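=== RUN LOG ===
request id: a7f3
mode: sequence -> structure
chains: 1
length: 146
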Amino acid sequence: MLKLNNLSPSEGARRNKKRVGRGPGSGRGKTATRGHKGARSRSGYSAKPGFEGGQMPLHRRLPKRGFNNIFRKEYVIVSLSDLDRFEAGATVDRQALVEAGIIRRNDGPVKVLANGEISRALTVDVDKVSGGAREKIIAAGGTVKE
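=== RESULT ===
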């Protein structure tokens, strides 16, 4: 009977590992498939990521586009509909959002957007709240702290 402990590939499905540098009779002795001289033939050689043998690497061949602001702040977006799962009167802060599974602990600053509706009065204490979200939270009887 076929079980996990006696599984094996069918005959001929797996080839033996290529054993190089095992004498001239093997056909892969002497230089051990590394060729003659050059950096690749030496031990300890490793090309850096993206190196293409002297050819202009892809990341340098492609044109640059736009402007990358290194000081840009990436916010984690939370919708108002996500906040509707909290009980009325609850304080919704980063810790509460992590415990509810809406954001991860190490995510960046949190911003609440006005996607969806909110039917409970909540105290929202996050990094940023959009204008529309602020109006909806206050209209539902909640408060916003930033």
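=== NOTES ===
DSSP finds four helices and six strands in the chain.
The CA atoms of residues 50 and 57 lie 6 Å apart.
=== END ===
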